[in-house]
Each structure stands twice: as C-alpha cells, then as structure tokens.
Design brief:
By secondary structure, this protein is mostly helical. The protein has one domain (3-282): Up-down Bundle (Vanadium-containing Chloroperoxidase, domain 1), CATH 1.20.144. Helices cover 70% and strands 0% of the residues.
C-alpha cells in the first residue's frame, strides 16, 4: 500500500471510530454526574424557603388581582408594539440555548481522547463540565415545565371566550391549555441562573434578558403574569438544583460555597488547543 493510501486508510478508520468515541465520552461524563455525591452540601438558607413561599403567594395573588387586568391591557396594545415583542419572545425558546450547547458538547466529545496529552485532556474536560452543566441546568427545568404545564392544563388568556384565569382542563395535552408555568419564562430564568453561575459578572444582563422575555409573553397574549412568575420560579429552582448536584460531586462548582472553579489560564488553554489542532491536521 502506498504512503498516500495508508494515510487515507487511517483517516477512514479514524472517522469510523468517531461515533463510538463521542458516545463513549458522553456516557463517561453522564457517569461522573450519576455517581454518588462526594461531599454533603450545607442546606439552603432559611431565607431561600421564605423567598419560594413568598413567590407562591404572589402567584396566587396575581391570579385573583392581576391576571385579567394584564390580559386586557395587552389586548389593547398597538399591533406594531406587539409585532416587536413577537420577534423578541422567540429568543426565549429553549432551542436558542440547547442547540448550540448540544453542538459544542458533541464537538468536545469528538475531540476528547485518551491519546491526547494531559494538558489537552484537562482543557477539554473543563469545557465539557461547563457546557454539560449549562445544557442540563437549562434543559432539565424546560423539560419539566413542558410536561407539568400540560398536566396542570391551565387555559391561556381568552381561550374559550372571555379571559378566565381559573379555567383548567388537566391532562388534555393541548397547547391552548398549557399556560402554567410559562415555558419561555422557565427557560429564560434557568439560563439567567445557570449562565450567571458560571460567569457571575454578566448576571445583571442575563436577568435583564429574562425579564424582557417574561414581559414579552404577557404582551403577545400567550400567558398571564402568574404563568410567567411560576415559570421563573421553576427555571431558577431547577438550575439551582442542577448546580448543587454538580457541586456535591465536585464538578465545576465548589461544594463549600457553590462558586465556580476558576478557568485554566489562557496559556494552558492555548497550549491544549494547539495540541488538538496539530493532531487533527496529522490525521
């Protein structure tokens, strides 16, 4: 076999092994999260429970005193104003985060190999932990909201005639009876909580984004305020639970204060990237 033929055969063999390497790395990362916690975390502070109870009270109060008025206000808004928020609200879809995060996870899984030097493997492990956390912390609450809202069966504004915040048809699994909690609000709050946990400096911008998405759901007439508040609660709590699960296994976050471990230095990341690029070019 010629030298060129050997190279082509090696490339074909490498490509054939790629799906197995990706699957193996994904299973290994899932196994790291499925293992028993390495450290017991402190209980959440009592004020966290108070905040959750207070939000539940606000949700119930909104159903009695705010929801109908908000729906009537939104219905009277100019069409041009609503059109702007029809565009904005699409940025609250879970796919906005999960598709790129999933693609990045697959890329890291494809690049990770036991044959790489320790420095390169460490850099990829850091990226896998961060992308994996963000995917789960956003995806898990969003999936929960998608299922539970159809079991609750709360009607969206003006379904079946005049607005009725107390109209429910549980278990019907129809979009018009899938208002609480708001899926967009869940995703936006989970994203703000999760990304803010990894990059605390941009947390104010993330919550501004989340509030705009929540407001947009009321403006376009898709949800009552109580739906949006409930979604924010589900998203924030879900992301916090995933964060604690990672911290208990010493993945990404410190178990003592839930702060993220520092990123590797730029020098280490660049060195690892150069090794990966050289290996890819040599294949």
């Amino acid at each position: 076999m010629t030298s060129r033929g050997s190279i082509e055969a090696a490339k074909s063999e490498s490509l054939a092994a790629l799906p197995l390497r990706i699957a193996g790395n994904l299973l290994r990362w899932c196994g790291a999260l499925a293992r028993a916690p390495r450290q017991r975390l402190r209980r959440p502070p009592a004020r966290a429970t108070v905040v959750v109870l207070a939000v539940l009270v606000v949700i119930i109060a909104s159903m009695f005193f705010l929801d109908t008025a908000a729906s009537e206000w939104a219905r009277g808004l100019p069409r041009s104003f609503k059109d702007v928020f029809e565009v904005i609200t699409d940025f609250g879809r879970s796919a906005v985060f999960l598709v790129p995060l999933g693609a990045l996870l697959l890329l890291v899984a494809a690049l990770s190999s036991a044959a790489l030097p320790r420095l390169a493997r460490g850099a990829l492990a850091v990226l896998a932990a961060r992308f994996g956390f963000l995917f789960l912390a956003i995806g898990a609450p969003s999936l929960f909201a998608t299922v539970i809202k159809r079991l609750i069966g709360r009607a969206r504004p003006y379904v079946g005639g005049p607005d009725n915040p107390f109209l429910y048809h549980p278990f019907v699994w129809r979009s018009e009876y899938a208002a609480m909690p708001s899926g967009h609000a869940t995703t936006a709050a989970a994203a703000a909580m999760a990304i803010g946990a990894v990059w605390p400096r941009i947390r104010p911008l993330l919550w501004l984004y989340a509030l705009i998405i929540m407001f947009s759901r009321i403006v376009v007439g898709a949800h009552h305020p109580s739906d949006v508040i409930a979604g924010a609660l589900v998203g924030a709590l879900g992301a916090m639970m995933v964060r604690r699960a990672f911290a208990a296994r010493r993945l990404l976050f410190s178990a003592s204060d839930l702060k993220p471990y520092p990123w590797p230095s730029r020098r280490r990341l660049k060195a690892g990237a150069r090794v990966i690029v050289r290996r890819g070019a040599a294949r």
